[in-house]
Write a structure and sequence with these properties.
The complex is a heterodimer of chains A (290) and B (799).
Chain A (H helix, E strand, L loop, with lengths): L1 E3 L4 H10 L4 E3 L5 H6 L7 E4 L9 E3 L5 E4 L4 H7 L5 H8 L4 H6 L2 H7 L7 H6 L3 E6 L2 E6 H4 E3 L2 E2 L6 E7 L6 E6 L10 E8 L4 E7 L9 H10 L10 H14 L10 H27 L4
Parallel strand pairs in A: 1-3, 2-3
Antiparallel strand pairs in A: 4-5, 5-10, 6-7, 6-10, 8-9, 11-12, 12-13
Helix pairs in contact in A: 3-4, 9-10, 10-11
Chain B lengths: L25 H6 L14 E7 L5 E7 L1 H4 L4 E5 L9 E2 L6 E2 L5 E2 L5 E7 L2 H9 L2 E6 L6 H6 L24 E8 L8 H11 L2 E9 L11 E6 L5 E5 L4 H12 L6 E5 L15 H11 L3 E4 L2 H7 L2 E2 L2 E9 L5 E11 L7 H10 L9 E9 L6 E2 L6 H19 L3 H7 L20 H10 L31 E14 L9 E10 L2 E7 L9 H13 L3 E4 L17 H26 L12 E4 L2 E4 L3 E5 H4 L6 E7 L19 E14 L4 E12 L6 H20 L5 E2 L2 E2 L20 E4 L16 H18 L5 E2 L3 H5 L4
Parallel strand pairs in B: 1-14, 10-33, 12-13, 15-19, 17-18, 22-23, 29-32
Antiparallel strand pairs in B: 1-7, 2-6, 2-8, 3-7, 4-5, 9-18, 10-16, 11-12, 11-14, 16-17, 20-28, 21-22, 21-27, 24-25, 25-26, 28-29, 30-31
The chains are: A alpha+beta (290), B alpha+beta (799).
């Protein structure tokens, strides 16, 4: 096995261009497990840990956050709870403290498992992924990134360099089901974000389909139902309908972690609860201005 | 002067019985420096690997190893044809092939073994072994295997050793009936109808316990080193080195003394190391190649490479009078032994004799079955047989209490056994059994604070789901549940599981030192510390050296059945007493003890022979200064037990009984089916506390393992295939799933055991599971008849 360890992004992009099948590795929390379990035998590993800029985040001109692909979850939790609340909440649910010190959003996007904890909030908040190659850098919406099971819009010569997270304009929540109270792969998960400027709703569903999913009908329905000028508690029927629409958007299977029926049920409950929390937060934020 | 006993010396010897000296291996384990069996390494060693069956049931038509042998670096590829001696082995039945021949009977069964200069080379060679299978329909339904006479057979007729006392028939490898009261004569169905007519309340249901894994962290591993005498030295993580030796030697066609076994660092056991795994394979490869061979299973392989807890299907019926008095009970318990017997007959012996628990029931009818199927083999795991039955009978007691409008503790106390009671086999409980007191204590323990009185009731870490953020309190309901279980301790049914200890006393560097040598396996339970404590207390010395456990001393029996403190502790004590007697005799001979002084007047304390009347007589340093070595080897046997009779199931089959009571408090998110255990408190009688710190650790660990079985731990098997062979999907409790535990320990000594001890490791594993499930039932109102409880069960989704 070849092990490439470039020290600059340019070198890394050149290496990736030369070895398009090279598997990038930063925290190794996914790649190393696959190697150790004999699930995968890549010819080339491309170590990105020496490229400092991938481990930085910065505030962009529009007030959003540009998150380097190799910033570990533990830093997202401590440093980005305000500018990226949904992603920070999801980061808290990732595995164990040791894994959170190593694991990265870039790795979650690279592996593109439907169970990736960071992925539903990226869908819900309409995050944008930067894909770089020697040919240049392009931006792809998270919502356009996941094509099919573990297949993404990233081309073979591209590296995931950053994730652009829009500045939050409303509440963001995340909830994840596991059959123990920590260190568990999602049975299913749900992210919700209200965009009060554009008056839109974002959703993300994890572990209930071949890719992370959006519940677009639920988003449209809720955007119509919320009184964006004077948010009040939603009628119970509306909350319930939102839950049903989220559950209907899922495409779950029965597997060793849970049944399809339970996943749909749990999604409807999580959708109802995160909606109720979001409206409560929204009313609190809106109250002083009213 | 009042009479004193030997144990009164405790206070005068540091780190003796009753103290909590630290484990000698504790710091090494915490800092990662301890050498586990998987860490062993030798200069010229080879790596062994095991090719396993991909099918749960298939005929082997041909095995072709030609291509595998061509891989550079491969030194041996062996199949059943290369087994030098007996082709089958087993703990109780010699029914398991060393390497499969003719047929494979479970997925993961070893078919061929490889030795190579690198694990990767061995892996590549295995890919080149061609095995032609004719796939057969697997037999996977244990009830059908037990009860349907037309069920196809897992083993060919005549190929399994005949044990008429086990009522074998078809796939049944043991059926143990038990009959008492009106069930002993006449038409049993008529007796049942008559009892039903007399009962004011009847509860009946079916229960299931899933296949639990021992989930030890150190995978199966060991190293076999060929010896110049044609024998082999095996270093291995196991639970009973002599029973390994007894099974390995015939397979290798070697005399027992040519197979020398030494215990290597064990990373947990819980029953899974009672059976052989890689032992014979490593020895075969080592003898074949003439080089040391190391085998280490990976985690997935480990799930196929050891036996699990028997899954059980159970039908129970209890009838009671209106005041709560139990009138009768019937039980059918079917445990799935999988492809090979392992400990299944013993599991049936426990599941039947303790099948109705610690309750006075005048009329009982129990049928326990252990069966062969093509599922993964099941064998020993902490509390075997009793754990499964306890979940069922305790669930029944809760149902009965609800039907009667009684508090579940009151119903249990009303029917509780005590010293002098007889269990359903007719065996008298001839030792203290303060069950009513224990239940009352558990009920009276302080409860954890209500959710709304917490400093921050919205702190996610206190809620079901934790920081996964599924609830801020919505849907959360609290429940309380109780459980009590009765466990046999030490081996049962006529088995003389004696232990041997060699104790040597000498002066080294001007200081008296005791050397304790046994073959007992330290598997994490702390026997290594207890052996030293006993020697210090009995010999009055501070310095004790514990020799490595190996076959150079007699058998210590298994580190299982909660028996090592009792049995090997008893052997160490007996050997110490013999050493002490010899020391006294030596002192008399050398004129240090006045002839008139009675033996009763002497003690060994503080490194001296001390007379109670005359004071210190001579120090051991002086007495043994000339290099005299005092050494004694002793066996310790517990009192004999009997087989259960095969018709009515009567007989004093058990050595000792242990009991633990649990009270669980849970918060359940009833909409999502997620559970947070808030408290799991225990009351246990251990007879005598030998090492307070380790004892609490045992009770906490047993309680947690039971919690795991209640809420998450299940090997999911479908069509003979394991669906979750990893710690990603086989979940065990984390610290965030494990609540604070209040533990009350009682000391009512057993008059039959050394120091009055009662085995402590297993009883908490029984009672914790039903207590937690009862608490979830109390919160949800659901019947919850399957352990572990799944979120689907709580929210009402049929699986």
């Amino acid at each position: 096995m070849r092990f490439l360890s470039p020290s600059t992004l340019q070198e890394a992009l050149e290496a990736k261009a030369e070895h398009p099948d090279a598997v990038p590795i930063t925290g190794g929390t996914d790649v190393m497990v696959e190697l150790n379990f004999d699930k995968r035998r890549p010819d080339t590993l491309l170590d990105l840990t020496r490229i400092a800029e991938l481990s930085r985040w910065e505030t962009t001109d529009d007030g959003g956050t540009r998150l380097g692909a190799a910033v570990p979850y533990s830093r997202i939790i401590t440093e980005l709870s305000a500018p990226a609340p949904g992603l920070a909440k999801a980061s808290r649910t990732v595995a164990s403290p040791q894994i959170r010190n190593r694991g990265t959003v870039g790795g979650n996007l690279g592996g593109a498992s439907p169970a990736g904890d960071a992925l539903p909030p990226l869908l819900a908040t309409d995050a944008v992924i930067e894909l770089a190659s020697t040919r240049g850098t392009r931006r792809v919406k998270a919502r356009d990134y996941f094509l099919s099971f573990r297949t993404t819009a990233r081309r073979d010569d591209e590296l995931i360099t950053a994730i652009r997270l829009p500045a939050p304009t409303g509440p963001q929540h995340f909830a994840k089901i596991g059959t123990r109270n920590a260190m568990v792969i999602a049975v299913t998960s749900f992210a919700l974000a209200l965009n009060t400027e554009e008056r839109t709703v974002g959703t993300g569903i994890g572990s209930a389909g071949p890719t992370p999913l959006r519940a677009e009908a639920a988003e449209d329905f809720l955007a119509q139902e919320i009184d964006w000028d004077a948010p009040g508690p939603l009628p119970e029927a509306t909350v319930r309908r939102f839950g049903e629409l989220v559950a209907a958007a899922a495409r779950p299977i029965d597997d060793q972690r849970g049944s399809a029926a339970y996943r749909r049920h749990a999604l409807s409950v999580m959708a109802r609860r995160t909606l109720t929390w979001s409206i409560t937060d929204y009313r609190k934020e809106a109250a002083p201005c009213a | 002067m009042s009479a004193t006993t030997v144990t009164d010396l405790t206070s005068t010897t540091r780190d003796g019985i009753g103290a909590s000296p630290l484990r000698p291996d504790g710091t090494l384990k915490v800092t990662g420096e301890f050498a586990y069996s998987s860490d062993m390494w030798m200069e010229d060693m080879l790596w062994g690997a095991t090719l396993r069956s991909p099918h749960p049931h298939a005929e082997i038509l041909a095995i072709d190893i030609t291509e595998a042998l061509k891989v550079p670096g491969v030194e041996a590829v062996l199949t059943h044809e290369d087994v030098p001696g007996r082709k089958r082995y087993g703990l109780e039945f010699e029914d398991q092939p060393v390497l499969a021949y003719g047929k494979v009977r479970y997925k993961g069964e070893p078919v061929a073994i490889v030795a190579a200069d690198h694990p990767e080379t061995a892996r590549r060679a295995m890919e080149r072994i061609r095995v032609d299978y004719r796939v057969l329909e697997p037999i996977t339904d244990s009830r059908r295997a037990a009860l349907d006479p037309h069920c196809p057979l897992v083993h060919e007729p005549g190929s399994i050793p005949d044990h008429p006392e086990y009522n074998q028939r078809g796939n049944r490898l043991r059926h143990q009936p038990i009959r008492t009261g009106d069930f002993t004569q006449g038409d049993p169905d008529a007796a049942l109808e008559a009892l039903r007519a007399r009962a004011d309340v009847i509860v009946a249901d079916e229960y299931e316990v899933g296949m639990q894994d021992q989930a030890f962290l150190g995978p199966e591993s060991g190293m076999a080193v060929p010896a110049e005498d044609g024998g082999v030295d095996l270093y291995v993580a196991t639970q009973w080195i002599h029973v390994d030796q007894r099974q390995i030697a015939p397979a290798l066609d070697l005399p027992q003394d040519k197979v020398r076994v030494t215990l290597a660092g064990v990373g947990g056991a819980f029953g899974a190391r009672e059976d052989l795994s890689m032992q014979i394979h490593a020895c075969m490869l080592a003898l074949h190649t003439g080089k040391p061979v190391k085998i280490v299973y990976n985690r997935e392989e480990s799930f196929y490479g050891h036996v699990h807890r028997h899954p059980a299907k159970m039908r129970y019926e209890h009838g009671a009078l209106a005041d709560g008095t139990l009138l009768y009970a019937t039980a059918e318990v079917i445990v799935d032994g999988g492809a090979y017997a392992s400990a299944t007959p013993a599991v049936v012996g426990v599941a039947s004799s303790l099948g109705l628990g610690p309750y006075e029931i005048p009329h009982a009818r129990v049928d326990a079955y252990g069966v062969y199927t093509n599922n993964p083999p099941c064998g020993a795991m902490r509390g075997f047989g009793a754990v499964q039955a306890c979940f069922a009978y305790e669930s029944q007691m809760d149902r009965l209490a609800r039907e009667l409008g009684m508090h579940p503790v009151d119903l249990r106390i009303k029917n509780s056994m005590s010293q002098g009671s007889r269990i359903i086999t007719g065996q008298e409980v001839d030792m203290p059994l303060p069950m009513a007191e224990m239940l009352a204590r558990a009920k009276d323990l302080p409860l954890p604070p209500d959710r709304d009185t917490l400093p921050d009731p919205a702190d996610l870490r206190t809620l079901p789901g934790g920081v996964a953020g599924t609830t801020h309190g919505e849907g959360v309901v609290r429940g309380i549940g109780y459980g009590v279980g009765l466990k046999n301790l030490c081996f049962s049914e006529g088995f003389d599981d004696y232990s041997t200890a060699r104790v040597r006393l000498e002066v080294v560097n001007g200081e008296p030192v005791a050397l304790v040598h046994t073959a007992a396996a330290e598997v994490g339970q702390g026997l290594v510390t207890v052996k030293g404590q006993i020697a210090r207390t009995e010999l009055g010395v501070e310095k004790v050296v514990i020799a490595p456990s190996d076959t150079n001393v007699g058998s210590a029996g298994s580190s299982s059945a909660s028996r090592q403190t009792y049995m090997t502790g008893g052997a160490v004590r007996t050997a110490c007493l013999a050493v002490r007697e010899e020391v006294y005799a030596l002192a008399r001979e050398r004129g240090h003890v006045p002839a008139a002084l009675d033996e009763e007047d002497l003690t060994l304390t503080g490194g001296k022979i001390v007379s109670r009347t005359l004071g210190a007589l001579v120090s051991l340093t002086d007495l043994l200064a000339d290099g005299t070595v005092v050494e004694q080897t002793r066996e310790y046997h517990h009192r004999p037990t009997e087989m259960l009779d095969p018709t009515l199931g009567q007989g004093a089959s058990h050595t000792q009984f242990g009991m633990c009571v649990h009270r669980a408090v849970v918060d359940v998110d009833v909409e999502l089916g997620l559970v947070k255990v808030i408290a799991l408190d225990a009351v246990q009688d251990v007879g005598k506390i030998m090492h307070p710190l380790q004892l609490i650790g045992q009770i906490q660990g047993g309680s947690t393992q039971g919690l795991g079985l209640a809420l998450m731990e299940e090997i999911q098997v479908g069509d003979g295939q394991i669906r979750n062979p990893s710690f990603t999907d086989y979940l065990i409790p984390t610290i965030l799933d494990t609540p604070p535990m209040r533990i009350e320990v009682l000391e009512h000594p057993d008059p039959h055991s050394p120091y009055g001890v009662r085995g402590a490791g297993e009883p908490p594993t029984l009672s914790s599971t039903p207590a937690v499930v009862a608490a979830v039932r109390a919160a949800t109102g659901k019947a919850l008849t399957h352990a572990p409880v799944r979120p689907e069960d709580i929210v009402g989704i049929t699986l």
